Write the structure tokens for this entry.
Amino acid sequence: LLRTSILIIFLITAIVKTEKRLFIFFLVYFVSNFRMSQFGFISWVKRGFSFASYGVTGAGWFRNSGEFGMEMAIFFAFTICFVFFLKGHWKGWMKWLMYFLPLSAIGCVLASSSRGAILAAIGGLLYLSMFSKQKFKAIIGASIVLGVAYWFIPPEFLERFQTAGTDKTSLSRIYYWGKARAMIADHPVFGVGYYNWIPYFRDHYYDPKFSGNVELCHNTFLQLGAELGYVGLGYFILLCLMS
């Protein structure tokens, strides 16, 4: 993950140097995500906006509904900015197509059955409202979006928020996070080794009551700290701040 992040940041900063290239870069990003969002949205509509424990998924890195939901939350925030900035330049079917981008994204967030994705989308709306030049309109618009989204959230999904911290998923992740901190404490400088989270966890901390099939840590920062120590974690945080 760290090596991939460094490579991606290097390529983007080396290639995207003009306004036109930035515009093209975002168009490629939008098309790639829209390919997933329209499929996820249509799948949700076909099942009658109902709840499914497996949620909806995308392609590649986003075959897991949690990661897919988080990506759609980011896509949702980007498309809102993009659409409102350029809406005066589109007419007819193009305008409605561009309006469908954030709609499909927020639909996938709701369909993903991911609590983290819901919180990310809400955080994105609040952030955009706080820094908007027209705060009152932005807050009203965000409230309407949240109200409509709440109306479409299946009851089973709402129950997942009520059981947060006590259900099996929450308890297993709390267990993972605690063991990640233990790994960092035992190997503070360079960690247990790159990509060694699963084998090290299986050898030292596996408990079928909490672990089941050993998964990733479900926390990027804790897993990086466990695998790469404070050196790798510090470098990753520095990359995020510089970005």
Q: What stands out?
A: The first helix runs from residue 2 to 15. The chain has a mean pLDDT of 87. The chain has ten helices and no strands.
